[in-house]
Design a protein that fits this description.
Largest sheet: none
Distance between the termini: 40 Å
Order of helices and strands: HHHHH
Shape: elongated
Bound molecules: hydroxy diiron-OXO moiety
Helix content: over 70%
Strand content: under 5%
CATH topology: Ferritin
Radius of gyration: 17 Å
Number of domains: 1
Structural class: mainly alpha
Length: about 170
């Protein structure tokens, strides 16, 4: 495996792991505030990011590359509001998309079509997750400071999230 691509894939392992821990911290914060629906949503996002990380670990090993299990950043664990929580969700997804684009760019530069093909799954995944984060943030912006709106958002978060691909 090309060493630049191997390095980028290892970086991506770290970003997915960081996202997993960030969403775990967000789930825990939501849980502590009584937002049980939002907590479940982020617990499951955290699990998903862990799966994304593991998929990369296995792929690099299959391709004969060297995996470096990374040290992780301390996640942000306090939020001023639900709006701040979901802004963090969106910015984290945008960051991951940008990093995946870097991997794709390098794959094309180095003509590694095998890794390029493997990364297409991540491209699709990011598209969906970014759209979902935007939809949730849009709804929160509509709700504003309304407490009963927050109650309904917490209750209906999965329905709102799943509606993001329908527009
Ligand atoms: Fe790993 O899917 Fe988003 O970040």
């Amino acid at each position: 495996m090309n060493t630049t691509i191997e390095k980028l894939l290892n970086d991506q392992i770290k970003y997915e792991a960081n996202a997993s821990m960030q969403y775990l911290a967000m789930a825990s914060w939501s849980d502590s505030k009584g937002y049980n629906g939002i907590a479940q949503f982020f617990y499951s996002q955290s699990e998903e990011e862990r799966v994304h990380m593991t998929k990369l670990v296995k792929f690099v090993n299959e391709r004969g590359g060297v995996v470096i299990i990374p040290e992780l950043a301390k996640p942000i664990d306090t939020f001023k509001s639900l709006n701040a929580l979901f802004k963090k969700f969106l910015s984290s997804e945008i960051f991951v998309t940008e990093q995946i684009n870097k991997v794709i760019f390098e794959c094309l530069e180095k003509k590694d079509y095998n890794v390029h093909n493997f990364m297409q799954w991540y491209v699709t995944e990011q598209l969906e997750e970014e759209a979902m984060a935007r939809t949730l943030l849009d709804k929160l912006n509509i709700i504003g400071e309304d407490k009963s709106g927050h109650y309904l958002f917490d209750r209906d978060i999965n329905t709102i999230a799943n509606s993001s691909g329908e527009e």
